[in-house]
């Protein structure tokens, strides 16, 4: 399935709009990743644990959105937007959401 932030897909024409689809993931950061990130915050450097958690959450949100579009018979999702939020009293969770418009395509001749 084609997933794009643009409003069209080159070489194709949108034949129908199937509706807005969403993907949402809330992921907790474990204690050890949190301690490592705290040390990096103090001394500098990148937090590989947080980066990996964010990458996985983003991938799962896109996958969930794609499954929902497929259930509607879509060929592509256009106009995709992503958002990130921290949740919890200690900001120990991250929420990744994405949305886009599920569409059916036909080849331009």
Characteristics of this structure?
4-stranded mixed β-sheet, 34% helix, 109 residues, 42% strand, elongated, Translation Initiation Factor IF3
SSE diagram, text form:
Blueprint: E1 2-3, E2 12-28, H1 31-43, H2 48-71, E3 76-87, E4 93-107
Parallel strand pairs: 1-3
Antiparallel strand pairs: 2-4, 3-4
Task: Identify the quaternary structure here.
Answer: single chain
What is the helix content? 25-40%
Gross morphology is elongated
> What is the architecture at the second tier of CATH?
2-Layer Sandwich
Overall radius of gyration: 18 Å
Largest sheet: 4 strands, mixed
Report the uncertain regions. none
Kindly describe this structure.
This protein is an alpha+beta fold. It has one domain (2-107): 2-Layer Sandwich (Translation Initiation Factor IF3). The protein is 34% helix and 42% strand. The protein contains two helices and four strands. The protein has helices spanning 31-43, 48-71, and strands at residues 2-3, 12-28, 76-87, 93-107. A four-stranded mixed β-sheet has the order 1-3-4-2. A hairpin with a 5-residue loop joins strand 3 and strand 4. The radius of gyration is 18 Å and the shape is elongated. The mean pLDDT is 86.
